[in-house]
Amino acid sequence: MFESAELGHKIDKAAYDAEVPQLRENLLNAQFDLAQKAKFPVILLIGGVDGAGKGETVNLLNAWMDPRHIVAHAMGEQSDEERERPPMWRFWRALPPKGKIGVFFGSWYTAPIVQRVMGKIKASDLDQSIDEINHFERMLTNEGALIIKFWFHLSKDVQRKRLKSLEKDPKTRWRVTDLDWERFKLYDKFRKVSEHALRATSTAEAPWIVIEGADPRYRSLTAGKILIEAMRKRLDHPVQAAPSSVPPLQAPIDRLNVFDKLNMSQKIAKKKFDSELEKYQGRLNLLTRDERFHNMSVIALFEGSDAAGKGGAIRRITSALDARHYRIIPVAAPTEEERAQPYLWRFWRHIPRTGRVTIFDRSWYGRVLVERVEKFCSEADWMRAYGELNDFEEQLVKNNTVLVKFWLTITKEEQLRRFKEREKTGFKRFKITEEDWRNRKKWNEYEHAVCDMVDRTSTEIAPWTLVEANDKNFARIKILKTLCQQIEAAMKKSK
Description:
Blueprint: H1 13-37, E1 42-48, H2 54-64, E2 70-74, H3 80-83, H4 89-94, E3 101-105, H5 110-117, H6 123-142, E4 146-153, H7 156-168, H8 178-184, H9 187-201, E5 208-212, H10 216-236, H11 270-289, E6 297-304, H12 310-318, E7 326-330, H13 336-339, H14 345-348, E8 357-361, H15 370-373, H16 379-398, E9 401-409, H17 412-424, H18 434-440, H19 443-457, E10 464-468, H20 472-493
Parallel strand pairs: 1-3, 1-4, 2-3, 4-5, 6-8, 6-9, 7-8, 9-10
Helix pairs in contact: 1-10, 5-9, 11-20, 12-20
């Protein structure tokens, strides 16, 4: 797939100078329209062989366009902070919001390609990374992002001459490092692996554009023209929402669901509760001080019916933890900053470092619950979300995160009792709102959504724990016990 990029493409100086002024004007106009409409972000990936002009192209685009609306990210070696989180965390944090252009000099392709060339991963590992990349980019494009992927190529002979030329000139010698020459020795391997990766990830939604990098004028003019054409096409002809490719949900013909088999009458007496609470809080505290805990992180996720007792359960967990080592993330309606990003961005940025606990009071499951029921998103959005959420959680678990998901459920009668109690109690009155009463009228719709959620996202690596919460004491002990058990199980695997 590199043959057309080894033909010796060139643009003479006169033709280049004649076209650049209009190209720059067009790019700036497109940037202005992009920023004004703020309907989608542009994600520009810059990849290719060493010496093919990747850095020069990034610098040129920064010079040609308005720096207020373009941010370039040179993704080099991972920092300590980045190594303690899933590999994609660093890229999620750098995604541009709607109306902006994000340039990635080095991207999510770099590590798997280099690792395969160096023999650090198997071909099957590379293919798995490619599959994950395709899922990621499909999710971004489904969220509306425009992805443009440039691969700057040089033939082996041209790359050798290019590196020697740069090294010979005192002004450009700094651009050539020992690593560049080490990688040049592996040119054939890099070409083979890169070609495989590009072929497998050049999709209809995010195709690769291979550009010959030998002639700077040809390279710059080609990249600029492709960028403006892609931006102008999207600005002038907005794309329609992608249809869902998820099989339709089928309701059981006997209407039996996962909640029908729960024993909602389970209780724990006050005396036993006090004893069990002390036992499991102490156990949790010791687990988080265990030496093995420093190599893992914990995410405890709480969803549930209104008034099911999520806040009280969370407080029983945090009472057992060092305040320096946990965070509670309350999830409400998204802010303007969050709405300008792909849906999962607001959750990715709160992923904890190793040796830390993060508790989500409500979570990424809002898309398949409240957003579905209240029609805050399209059916296609929440239907494809099941797969996206499973992919997200798989990345967390693969990075040694203990992910514990709790759904607290109460009966409709118990919820009514608690609502009325809150209205009568002064210090609890803030907990009950008109929205709670309105949501209660949609009890059946929410229950149906929850059942679908459990069926689609209770996986072998991240199962849901359904908590019978009519009795708060029973629910709190079950949650603490489950959390301890899952941390212990993860520690045993890490031996």
